[in-house]
TrEMBL record:
UniProt name for this protein: Histone deacetylase complex subunit SAP18
Annotated family: Belongs to the SAP18 family.
Top-level taxon: Eukaryota
InterPro entries: SAP18 (IPR010516), SAP18_sf (IPR042534)
GO molecular function list: transcription corepressor activity
GO cellular component, one term: nucleus
Length: 93
């Protein structure tokens, strides 16, 4: 993997006890697109299966307007994120 992010890609380093809310706040502070009002972030885990194909599994939603979601307090460990996995985060308005 290259060190330089491509367009619309953000490299972050975090711990298994980081919550989806904490990651959403980091993205909000780091990218202009995430600062728009009423953005919701859809989190998915992307990981390879035993055949080498990539699988995407939904992990939860976080709202940037501070509307509480039931998933925002889940940690990466709780949603099954493992080293080598990717987070795919869709910014929706």
């Amino acid at each position: 993997m290259e060190d330089t992010p491509i367009a619309h890609e953000l490299h972050i380093y975090t711990w298994p006890d980081a919550t989806l809310r904490e990651i959403a706040d980091l993205i909000h502070d780091s990218t202009e697109e995430a600062r728009k009002p009423n953005i919701r972030m859809g989190f998915s885990i992307v990981y390879p299966d035993h055949r080498g194909r990539y699988i995407m599994r939904k992990a939860g939603w976080v709202y940037t307007n501070r509307r509480k979601s039931i998933e925002e307090d889940k940690t990466l460990a709780q949603i099954g994120f493992q080293p080598g996995d990717f987070l795919d985060i869709a910014l929706l308005s």
